[in-house]
Amino acid sequence: MNNDRREFLKKSAITTVGAFFLPQFLQAYSPLNLDGNNRRLVIIQLSGGNDSLNTVIPYNNSLYYEHRPTLAIAEQKVLKLNKQLGLHYSLSFFQDLLDKGEMNIINQVGYPNPNRSHFRSMDIWHTANISSASSSEGWLGKYLDEFQGNTNKNIYSHQAIDLSGGSILALQGQKRSGFGINSGKLIRGTNDHFLQQIQHHQEHTNSQVDYLYQVLANTYSSSEYILEKMKTKHSHQEYPSDNLGKQLKQTADLITAGCNTEIYYLKVSGFDTHNSQLPRQERLLKQLNHGIQSFVKDLRRSGLWNSTRVMIFSEFGRRVKENGSKGTDHGAAGSLFLLGGKLKSSGIYNASIDLENLEKGDVQYKIDFRRVYAELLDNWLEFPSNTILGETFKSMNIV
Description:
Layout: H1 3-11, E1 40-46, E2 56-57, H2 62-67, E3 79-80, E4 86-87, H3 92-99, E5 103-110, H4 118-127, H5 139-151, E6 160-162, E7 179-180, H6 193-197, H7 207-232, H8 243-256, E8 263-268, H9 277-302, E9 308-314, E10 334-340, E11 347-349, E12 367-368, H10 369-379, H11 385-389
Helix pairs in contact: 8-9
């Protein structure tokens, strides 16, 4: 997409219609094509930089307690996974998932020359671009762009749904982007005369106006499809009332209703714990634990858990040493979770976290995050990852 069109949409009032972040497709209005591989990927972004060391805890390492005299989780409270690592006491359901062979914990995930800025580090994770040059294309946006040409399948505009309530760079492509739903609101196109007239729009001499009509047409089309799906079936599972719980509930509703969507993107904020970390992180991890528990139970009941994969990540971990405000500052490598039924393998990557060989006070990365992306692209979405990532990564053989 050229810069003029990007700026035009950014300034246009249509970006707020129905609380949508609108898909940027260039094809004209047409019935939706529903090709897919009957698998789905749910991504949960923990924004702010979750403290991995108090999430996946090296409880048997004296350095952990030396660096965190007031923040370290006491050994007797840790949910022990092996002789070296355990989980935060709020993550009891995560322990159950690991015991059932339905979770991988990947420790020390990051990238070379880590950036400690929230915005830059998240951009790196979103674009899978570790160079100094910024990019306006997300790794999943590239997947949406490349999908049709490489598979000879017609893409549908809700192939990726963004439930985060904002514009997620990971889902931005040059030609296609994720279809956004904010707080469960959809354009009620059936009774909207203006949107119905889009179907009869003739090509306009002004390319930007014509482009806007095309965007509206695709929004209308996907909105109608999703609304119809949501009328057919609803989950009866109880979910937490917090923001993440609501996003997970809507995701489950769409999945169980048979919505043919491959990618769902969710986000929860608040992990920037520079001060008063212990109660804040406990609250957030409890929300994560309870939300995931409801979500997994829901999909198990519907027989859809085995065809679902969930990735939970944060833009970076925190410093090993606590600060003077009962918190931790921005760090580097952290832990990532991959969940799903019938995984190829489960367990813990890097079963001990290295606290001796730090880089500027941070845990160093051992697993490039792009290797995790490659695993999901190659072995779950069944799409050649080197097309998206620009290089080949060794398979982890876990999803």
